[in-house]
Amino acid sequence: MFEEPFRWMEAISTRHSYVREKLQGGQPVIAVPYQDGALMLGFSPQPGKIFEVYDRIAMGGMGHPADVEKMRMTLLDMAHLEGFNRSAQDVTIARMLQFGIAPALKQNFEEVQRAPYLIKLLLLELDPDGKPNFFRLNYDGYWETLNQGGSIAGDDKVMEWIDKKMEETPFATFPLDKALTEVCKLWEEGKNQIARGEDKEDETPELSIGLKEAFEKWNLEAAVLSASTDRRSIYRTLNPKEIEKLKTAVLKQ
Predict the structure, then answer these.
(1) If DSSP states are collapsed to H, E and C, what string results for the chain?
(2) Which has more confidence, 236 or 3?
(3) Partner residues linked to 62 by β-bridges
(4) Exposed, middle or buried: residue 183 (CB in 10 Å: 0-12, 13-18, 19+)?
(5) Per-residue pLDDT tens for 156-209?
(6) Labelling 111: which of 3, 144, 165, 201 has CA 20 to 30 A away?
(7) How far apart are the first and last CA of the chain?
(8) Which of 78, 106, 97 is nearest to 144 (CA)?
(9) 131-to-159, 193, 225 alpha-carbon distances in Å
(10) How far apart are alpha carbons 76 and 54 in whole angstroms?
(11) Predicted pLDDT of residue 203
């Protein structure tokens, strides 16, 4: 049936609808710059939302856990191979996306007999000058560069609202504590803004979950790439004390 162009296009359209429906309830992952580097944050029912991929590169994932893990391992292998064949400085997100993972995802998505990946990825990189670079990768291989931070979410309207507000907020001037607080507000307000405009009968339950309920039900995962650290690795996850401090700060407001 797929020798006919219309049938193939119809099948692709159906796959888009299928993947979007499966990702609809996915909780946002947000990455922004701050004074000393960049941070990434997201809530999840189980650990496995934010990872270190390589020196200076972090990844946030949303979707089916098995597919997120497959992409993490693929990026990890690709980064180490690139670092071995060239140098650590040549391992960049743009190269891995353009010459590796994006074409593979596109091919997978267009082969309609195979199951598509149920994922969206947010990638964060701190270049040697300490400048953060942000990238968003879709399940069909489409990727884009984001200038002032970015997000992924199951609901595209939530993602677009967060991205727009992010451009209006001077995150790069904030210290880490303030940046974390403001990102948490964006996480909640983005969902609330869209939920208020939804038909209540069609409302996605996950959209109505606020910060208080999220802290009680889920894990908060957050990591930073810091240009000012003395440690060899510039990637570090927030420790329980920092997360508790953040929780206290955002819930008392």
Answers:
(1) CCCCHHHHHHHHHHHHHHHHHHHCCCCCEEEEEECCEEEEEEEECCCCCEEEEECCEEEEEEECHHHHHHHHHHHHHHHHHHHHHCCHHHCCHHHHHHHHHHHHHHHHHHCCCCCCCCEEEEEEEECCCCCEEEEEECCCCCEEEECCCEEECCCHHHHHHHHHHHHCCCHHHCCHHHHHHHHHHHHHHHHHHHHHHCCCCCCCHHHHCCHHHHHHHCEEEEEEEECCCCCCCCEEECCHHHHHHHHHHHHCC
(2) 236
(3) 120
(4) buried
(5) 999 999 999 999 999 999 999 999 999 999 999 988 877 766 655 555 666 668
(6) 144
(7) 58
(8) 97
(9) 23, 31, 10
(10) 7
(11) 55
Sign of the CA dihedral 168, 173, 174, 176? Answer: positive
Model pTM score:
0.91
* b/e per residue 35-50 (b: at least 16 CB within 10 A): ebbbbbbbbbeeeebb
Helices 176-197 and 156-167 sit at what angle, rounded to 10 degrees? Answer: 140
Other Cβ atoms less than 10 A from the Cβ of 236: the count is 14
The pLDDT, as a whole number, for residue 74 is: 95
Q: What is the pLDDT of residues 12-43, one digit of tens each?
A: 999 999 999 999 989 999 999 999 999 999 99
Structure tokens at 253: 């407001």
> Residue 75 corresponds to which tokens in the numbers above?
């990026």
More confident residue, 244 or 207: 244
Which tokens belong to 220?
């908060």
Contact 204, 155 (CB under 8 A): yes
Residue pair 63/139 in contact by the 8 Å Cβ criterion: yes
| Amino acid at residue number 63 | G
